[in-house]
Design goal:
The complex is a heterodimer of chains A (115) and B (113). Chain A is mainly β. In chain A, 0% of the residues lie in helices and 56% in strands. In chain A, strands 2, 4, 5, 6, 9, 10 and 11 form a 7-stranded mixed sheet that branches. In chain A, strands 1-3-8-7 form a 4-stranded antiparallel sheet, with no helix packed on it. Chain A is globular and about 40 Å long. Chain B has no helices and 12 strands. In chain B, strand 10 and strand 11 form a beta hairpin. Chain B is globular. Classes of the chains: A mainly beta (115), B mainly beta (113). At the A-B interface, strand 5 and strand 10 of A face strand 5 and strand 6 of B.
């Protein structure tokens, strides 16, 4: 099994629908992240969490929310999806401190299409 | 402002040719530097990292990168490219006291037989 598992891998939905992307990890890492990838824009950080009670906004958090249900689980929600949220979404994890806090382990990605 | 620049959006090379992907950064603190690779349909995989010490670092799949502080660069190299190296490559910068990495916009590598 993968260290970082994302579900669903692909999702097509309609404008206005609520969508949840889930992420679970077996790395035992404290830090978890949600990124969005768009062609030509690289990876942009949506939200990140250092533990269950510590959640922080990234550079593009508007229109998104997250929940850290447990150390190993971090979900991303789009409360009312819009077409410009069509993108590839990645979950990632890292150690809490030290140089390892910068070393990210990524999931395989969740491709979301909003019609 | 902190940033990472990958000036080449798309590079095409022939199989067996040498490769250099450019990465420049602007960062206030002593940087930690990374290269990640994303193969089609896959997540990002760490190729190599630089924290301190020897400025020439070796990674997986025969890749290496050199940190040049005076040029604020961390270019990725491979002496002989294989068709399986076709992918998108991302440079990233962080530091010991940062919450998050800053990624470049990526360079897509195409390899011709």
């Amino acid at each position: 099994d993968a260290d970082v598992t994302q579900t669903p891998r692909n999702r097509i939905t309609k404008t206005g629908k609520r969508i949840m992307l889930e992420c679970s990890q077996t790395k035992g890492h404290d830090r978890m992240y949600w990124y969005r990838q768009d062609p030509g824009l690289g990876l942009r950080l949506i939200y990140y969490s250092f533990d269950v009670k510590d959640i922080n906004k990234g550079e593009i958090s508007d229109g998104y929310s997250v929940s850290r249900q447990a150390q190993a689980k971090f979900s991303l929600s789009l409360e009312s999806a819009i077409p410009n949220q069509t993108a590839l979404y990645f979950c990632a994890t890292s150690d809490r401190t030290g140089p390892g806090a910068n070393v990210l382990t990524f999931g395989a990605g969740s491709r979301l299409t909003v019609l | 402002a902190q940033s990472v620049t990958q000036p080449d959006i798309h590079i095409t090379v022939s199989e067996g040719a040498s490769l250099e992907l450019r990465c420049n950064y602007s960062y206030g603190a002593t940087p930690y530097l990374f290269w990640y690779v994303q193969s089609p349909g896959q997540g990002l995989q760490l190729l190599l990292k630089y924290f301190s010490g020897d400025t020439l670092v070796q990674g997986i799949k025969g890749f290496e990168a050199e940190f040049k502080r005076s040029q604020s660069s961390f270019n990725l190299r491979k002496p002989s490219v294989h068709w399986s190296d076709a992918a998108e490559y991302f440079c990233a910068v962080g530091s010991y006291n940062t919450d998050k990495l800053i990624f470049g916009t990526g360079t897509r590598l195409q390899v011709f037989p």
